[in-house]
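Appendix C reproduces, verbatim, an entry submitted by the partner laboratory led by Prof. M.T., so that reviewers can inspect both the input and the predicted structure.
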Amino acid sequence: MKIQTIEQQKQWYQTAFELFESTLNGESRELIHGVRRTAFQQFLTSGFPSTKNEEWRFTNVSPIAKTAFQPVLKYESGGVTKQQVAALSFDELACSRLVFVNGQYAKEFSSLHALPGGAIVTNLATAIKAHRETVLKHLGLQGLSQANPFLALNTAFLQDGAFIVVPDGVAMEEPLHLIFVSTRRSEPFAAHPRNLIVVGDGSRAALVETYASTEPSTYLLNAATEIVLGNDAVLEHDKLQKESEQAFHTATVHVRQGRSSSYTSNVINLGGSIVRNTITAELAGEHALAVLNGLSLGTGTQLIDNHTAIDHAMPHCESHELYKSILDGKSHGVFNGKIFVRKDAQKTDAKQTNKTLLLSDSALIDTKPQLEIFADDVKCTHGATVGQLDDEQVFYLRSRGIDEARARDILTFAFASDVVRRIAIEPLKSQLESLVNQKLGDGRALYQGQIP
């Protein structure tokens, strides 16, 4: 079914929301459902964004808006096997993992190790009942606005996801792995996982998110992750997205950082038809550090859009940002990076870099780095470069007996590895190196007509 008009769109989602409400039973009278209702009204008011919206002018989401996605309201395994989940895990890495199938918690595929110091790792649906006050304190209070209709839609259909709380002074020695698996269903579907991560004062943790498909399928994976970092807290947050190239992936991350906290984000995009990542880091305490890294590999007709915003709200904070794209075929990349330096945020040190490598004449990048500075004692730089492989470097490798195709692969991988090597978790880094090599090879074969 295709949705042709805005009125049909509103009616479709109104019916879907009412169906969702009917499954909640007594929970529809809880405070959290008020958060859902408010978000749904925001979505109805704004609707899906169009290219007339400045924040979306390079990303046409009409294929999403015109598809009647059925929301997934209950858990079904969808034929997922333990072998498929194992292939997405890290055998050589001891870690707890939470697995979600089509946005719903899959207990039989999840595994939790002993957790230190009263740490909590569970699914959000359980936490809404067992840790109600913590959920209500943090959930839905950050970043929810009419400017992001996909976040409003996620909040409206908020049901499940990951819930992680690391108490003050606790060091999580093992990474936590969240695996989101999407399957084929009889009709296009939508999953809206919501993750809430709270890392207390002086605590440390590492989080890996993996988004993958079991087979080619059309669906909307609309995720949102809220992160709260206490004073002196440290979090490395790695995300690997390798979904079906028929799928649509939208994700919102909002991070609020306390004094002297450190947040590192590494986002790797390999799959998806239309992909939109929105990351906001709010440096709300002095001496906070935010590091945002990203790598996108686009082939065919993929569109991969990365929007970042770093809000320097307090003095003596640092941010460092490196986003790279490799685009082949007729793929389209978008980068919009904003750095805000507020009036009282003196001694800010912010650096932003965006680099794009175009492997074909038909690939396209729209890049827009931005600085908005309202303080006078700051050190801020930004820059963007777009280019193709250096012919002299290719010639040098060929003069050493390497054929042209292999020479180009070596240089392309070297461009990508600048981001991959920044990941601290070795098994993930090794897996990414293999996936990047495979993606580059598949992209070349597709463009040369070797893959039908």
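The first strand starts at residue 70 and ends at 71. Additional entries are available on request from the coordinating office.
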